[in-house]
Specification:
The complex is a heterodimer of chains A (116) and B (114).
Chain A: E1 5-7, E2 10-13, E3 19-24, E4 31-38, E5 42-50, E6 53-56, E7 65-71, E8 74-79, E9 88-95, E10 106-107, E11 111-115
Parallel strand pairs in A: 2-11
Antiparallel strand pairs in A: 1-3, 3-8, 4-5, 4-9, 5-6, 7-8, 9-10, 9-11
Chain B: E1 3-7, E2 10-14, E3 19-26, E4 33-38, E5 44-50, E6 56-58, E7 64-68, E8 73-78, E9 87-94, E10 102-104, E11 108-113
Parallel strand pairs in B: 2-11
Antiparallel strand pairs in B: 1-3, 3-8, 4-5, 4-9, 6-7, 7-8, 9-10, 9-11
The chains are: A mainly beta (116), B mainly beta (114).
């Protein structure tokens, strides 16, 4: 298994531009999570999906952020327009259904976003 | 609501010394507990997990953690630190709703001195 795959690994963009981050979860995992990590705020849960349906998006900071999961093998996190304060490392993680026992998450390697 | 508190944002030990990273949790029922490690410029990797099968849990790279219900603690230890253990460590508790949502501590950065 290749694990959770995120792309790109690094993204530098100018303020005001649209940014799209991509994630491929582990095949068979029911849950997908998007996190943001900064020095100031640590790890923040932005949104998570269960069977491709968004369950909780209360962590999405603003309307500029949106996430989709069109199928079980792909999810995107989009920021439009981007701002310098969006600079962070964005992680995607996936997991099995917790009702079968809580297995924890498998994280991707992250996308380091820099907005200048 | 569940929560987890990591005591000490930075811990420094000498190579070969005992590693002890402290974690206390808050939960009204026995939780699932995890430790994750994040090496520089990498994602988070599962070190070990407690799911009520045994109170002493062994993980990868020689780490272990002991679940102590009376103290609501889940401290992470390693008998002898190695330079490669330098990383950030997160204590994590599961959400009670069974959705699988995990609640992360603020993290402890472990520095290993030669």
């Amino acid at each position: 298994d290749a694990g959770v795959i995120q792309s790109p690994r690094h993204e530098v963009t100018e303020m005001g531009q649209e940014v799209t981050l991509r994630c491929k979860p582990i095949s068979g995992h029911d849950y997908l999570f998007w996190y943001r990590q900064t020095m100031m705020r640590g790890l923040e849960l932005l949104i998570y999906f269960n069977n491709n349906v968004p369950i909780d998006d209360s962590g999405m900071p603003e309307d500029r952020f949106s996430a989709k999961m069109p199928n079980a093998s792909f999810s995107t996190l989009k920021i439009q327009p981007s701002e310098p304060r969006d600079s962070a490392v964005y992680f995607c993680a996936s997991s099995l259904d917790a009702r079968q026992g809580n297995y924890g998450y498998t994280f991707g390697s992250g996308t380091r976003l820099t907005v200048v | 609501a569940q929560s987890v508190t990591q005591l000490g944002s930075h811990v420094s030990v000498s190579e070969g010394a005992l590693v002890l990273l402290r974690c206390n949790y808050s939960s009204s029922v026995p939780p699932y507990l995890f430790w994750y490690v994040q090496y520089p410029n990498q994602g988070l990797q599962l070190l070990l997990k407690y799911t009520s099968a045994a109170t002493l849990v062994k993980g990868i790279n020689g780490f272990e953690a002991e679940f102590k219900k009376s103290e609501t603690s889940f401290h992470l230890t390693k008998p002898s630190a190695h330079m490669s253990d330098a990383a950030e460590y997160f204590c994590v508790v599961s959400d009670l709703s069974n959705t699988g949502k995990l609640i992360f501590g603020q993290g402890t950065t472990l520095q290993v001195k030669p």
